[in-house]
Each structure stands twice: as structure tokens, then as C-alpha cells.
Specification:
Layout lengths: L4 E3 L2 E9 L6 H8 L13 E8 L3 E8 L18 E7 L6 H12 L9 E6 L9 H8 L9 E5 L8 H20 L1
Parallel strand pairs: 2-4, 2-5, 5-6, 6-7
Antiparallel strand pairs: 1-2, 3-4
The protein binds guanosine-5'-triphosphate (GTP) and magnesium ion (MG).
């Protein structure tokens, strides 16, 4: 089980980013680091980047490739993670059920017991994006009992919603670290 270590005011956390191929995970990773939008290739394996957040929180972000042939190895990234960031392509209505099934499979893994998760409804700036309310209804995240979770709309392209996403991430991590220390 991972540990959100809190020495003095500093907190360190391991964050794993998952979601179907083309959801926008790698684009998000580099936007969160403050880069301009980057051109990405489908990720084979993973990218890992440190990210210092305000409030003395140091994250390590693991961005794992989401193509179907790669999903069998998702389980290899779960040990020691403090939080899951699950990225959805809001324009990909056809694959929403598949995305939800893969999320359920990840949360079902023993390493994920009581690990919080943040679902990012990405690509919200696109004209054909499903509205957040509809995504919320379709996902039914309440079913995942035993996990704290949050749902946030964002666009890795424009950056809208990313500060809120980091805030949600911080709150979920803090609730977990309190939980762990008791
Ligand atoms: N319109 C729009 N396109 C986006 C957004 N975020 C990412 N994309 C595009 O979606 C495509 C896939 O983005 P990636 O970041 O490579 O997706 P990924 O989730 O890392 O995909 P895998 O590595 O295959 O798992 C790229 O063409 C991105 O430019 C967004 O917020 N809005
Ligand atoms: Mg990628």
C-alpha cells in the first residue's frame, strides 16, 4: 500500500493516470506541468513526471498507455499508488461504456482498495463533448463504494478545469492521508 507521507508540511504522493487510448492523458500530463500543448504519440509503456503543487505537495505522475493491448499491464502500475486519475474523452460517447468497464476493473484490484480516484471529463471545449451532467449520470460513480472520488470537467487543450482538477486531487489526497494516519 502506498503512503502519503507527511513530514512537516510536505506531502508526497504517487498518482497513476489511466483511461482509454486517446483520452488525453499525455496531453494532460504536460499541461499540468505548465507546458504549452504538446503533440503526442500514443503512449507505449508509460511517462513519469514530478509535479510540485502549491502547499508543499510533491506528486509523481505516472501516465500509462491506454491502448487495449496495453491494458493487461495496467495492474502492474497499481502497487503503491495513492490516487488514480482516470481520464475520459468527453467526445467519445461510443466508448463511454468501455471506459467505465475498465475503470471498474482497475478499482476492483486489491491494490486499489480504499484508494481515491478523480475522473477527468477531458476535451470539454470540443463542440461535440457530452456535458458533464450527462457524463455524471452515465457513469454512476456512486456504485464504487469504499472509495472517495471526484468528477471534474476539463480541457487539456485550453487548460480550463485544470486548476480545479489539481484542487480536487489535493483534497482527495488529504482525506486519504488523514485516514491513513489514524
Ligand atoms: N479537443 C481536444 N483534444 C485533446 C484534448 N486533450 C488531448 N487531446 C487530443 O487527443 C489526442 C490523444 O491525446 P493523448 O494525450 O496522446 O492521449 P492518451 O490518453 O495519452 O493516449 P494513449 O497514450 O494512447 O493512452 C491528441 O490528438 C490530443 O491532441 C482536449 O482537451 N481537447
Ligand atoms: Mg499517452
Amino acid at each position: 500500500m502506498g503512503s502519503v507521507t507527511s513530514r512537516g508540511p510536505r506531502m508526497e504522493a504517487q498518482v497513476v493516470m489511466m483511461g482509454l487510448d486517446s483520452a488525453g492523458k499525455t496531453t494532460l500530463l504536460y499541461r499540468l506541468k505548465g507546458h504549452q500543448p504538446v503533440k503526442t504519440l500514443p503512449t507505449v509503456g508509460f511517462n513519469v513526471e514530478p509535479l510540485d503543487m502549491p502547499g508543499h505537495v510533491s506528486l509523481t505522475l505516472w501516465d500509462v498507455g491506454g491502448q487495449s493491448r496495453l491494458r493487461a499491464s495496467w495492474k502492474d502500475y497499481l502497487e503503491g499508488m495513492d490516487i488514480l486519475v482516470y481520464v475520459l474523452d468527453s467526445t467519445d460517447e461510443a466508448r463511454l461504456p468501455e471506459a467505465l468497464a475498465e475503470l471498474a476493473a482497475v478499482l476492483d484490484h486489491p491494490h486499489m482498495a480504499s484508494v481515491p480516484f478523480l475522473v477527468l471529463a477531458n476535451k470539454q471545449e470540443a463542440p461535440d463533448a457530452l456535458p458533464l451532467m450527462e457524463i455524471r449520470a452515465r457513469l454512476g460513480l456512486e456504485r464504487f463504494q469504499g472509495h472517495s472520488w471526484a468528477l471534474q470537467a476539463c480541457s487539456a487543450l485550453t487548460g480550463v478545469g485544470l486548476p480545479e482538477a489539481l484542487q480536487s486531487l489535493g483534497s482527495l489526497l488529504r482525506s486519504r492521508s488523514h485516514h491513513v494516519s489514524r
